[in-house]
Hints:
This protein has 89 residues and is an alpha+beta fold. The protein has helices at residues 20-26, 57-61, 67-70; strands at 8-10, 13-15, 34-39, 42-47. The protein has a domain at 8-47: Ribbon (Pemi-like Protein 1, Chain: D). Strand 1 (8-10) and strand 2 form a beta hairpin. The termini are far apart.
Amino acid sequence: xxxxxxxxxxxxxxxxxxxxxxxxxxxxxxxxxxxxxxxxxxxxxxxxxxxxxxxxxxxxxxxxxxxxxxxxxxxxxxxxxxxxxxxxx
Length: 89
């Protein structure tokens, strides 16, 4: 994929614009840090940290059904009102 952009001046800096479609492909957001280097006259920009993984609700809830197996007494422990700290029941 090749995208064309212009170098422009903003304040005292020279800046380029990264189109939103390219940010989405790279899974980057505004504010992400890039490492810039030059190799054989080409500018190379790489994310400093790996892109943040985004999870769907289905992925977050995956395996939640297995947690009910750990509760063998059917939630009776919630009703004895024996608090261990400052939690609200």
